[in-house]
């Protein structure tokens, strides 16, 4: 089964999983418009793949109020977009017992990038995707930490758990539309996300990002809407937990849809 979308708008694509998946999609013949803050890296991506296969838009997802205008500009510029891939992320440690270790504004800013920006962009792009007569999709990057939080990164863990719940709700609300909702929940992957630990240590952890991008693309080609882990790590444990949660949700959702 081939990946069914022809033009992916990938937000959060200047490094890490977003950049690696963007490269893999282009290799598969899919046009990709990359989005991020760092214009130089966006330009490098376009130069690497050529303007027929790649394009770029500068946008900072922390500008929550700017999401509707960004969506309007992006879809006007590229009306053939049929997949919105949301991947932005930031991460840092918090010692919750020490009030001097990050104030509320730091925590809130991380939640804005890792969760609220996804909600804002989803709301901004949903009418566009629903207006199309052909299949479209949202792809969200969450994390296995949505199922099992890491104590030292509570903001990131909480944001990914919230995003996972949001994906469940969105998928159900779009169940009768042509918009598919897909979740990628990566394991620990070696990227710049962990540079706050020190580059050598942070990028020395986890599976190679190119390997994860390949695993993710192969799973996307198979048509799954919930892709957990990769070929490295205890994916089976998380899959069992996710399957049970999905069954509970599917059993109860019909009873809760019409509750005011």
From TrEMBL:
The keyword tRNA-binding does not apply. It comes from the Eukaryota. SUPFAM superfamilies: NAD(P)-binding Rossmann-fold domains. InterPro entries: NAD(P)-bd_dom_sf, Sc_DH/Rdtase_CS, SDR_fam. Keywords: NADP, Oxidoreductase. Signal peptide: none annotated. Pfam families: adh_short. GO terms for molecular function: oxidoreductase activity. Belongs to the short-chain dehydrogenases/reductases (SDR) family. PANTHER family: 5-KETO-D-GLUCONATE 5-REDUCTASE (PTHR43669), OXIDOREDUCTASE, SHORT-CHAIN DEHYDROGENASE_REDUCTASE FAMILY (AFU_ORTHOLOGUE AFUA_1G01330) (PTHR43669:SF15). This is Uncharacterized protein. It comes from Penicillium vulpinum.
């Amino acid at each position: 089964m081939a990946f069914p979308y022809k033009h992916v708008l990938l937000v959060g694509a200047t490094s890490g999983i977003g950049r690696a998946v963007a490269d893999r999609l282009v290799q598969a013949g899919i046009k990709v418009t990359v989005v991020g803050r760092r214009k130089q890296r966006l330009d490098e991506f376009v130069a690497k793949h050529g303007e027929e296969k790649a394009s770029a838009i500068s946008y900072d997802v922390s500008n929550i109020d700017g999401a509707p205008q960004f969506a309007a500009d992006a879809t006007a510029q590229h009306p053939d977009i049929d997949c919105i891939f949301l991947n932005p992320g930031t991460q840092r440690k918090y010692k919750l017992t020490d009030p001097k270790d990050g104030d509320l504004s730091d925590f809130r800013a991380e939640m804005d990038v890792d969760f609220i920006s996804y909600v804002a962009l989803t709301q901004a792009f949903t009418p566009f995707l629903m207006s199309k007569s052909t299949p479209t999709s949202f792809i969200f990057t969450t994390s296995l930490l949505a199922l099992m939080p890491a104590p030292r990164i509570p903001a990131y863990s909480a944001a990914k758990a919230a995003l996972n719940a949001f994906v469940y709700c969105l998928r159900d609300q779009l169940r009768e539309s042509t918009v598919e909702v897909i979740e990628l929940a990566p394991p620990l992957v070696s990227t710049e996300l962990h540079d706050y630990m020190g580059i050598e240590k942070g990028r020395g952890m986890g599976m190679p990002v190119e390997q994860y991008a390949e695993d993710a693309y192969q799973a996307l080609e198979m048509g799954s809407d919930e892709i957990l882990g990769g070929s490295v790590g205890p994916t089976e444990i998380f899959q069992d937990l996710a399957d049970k949660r999905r069954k509970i949700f599917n059993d109860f959702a019909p009873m809760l849809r019409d509750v005011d």
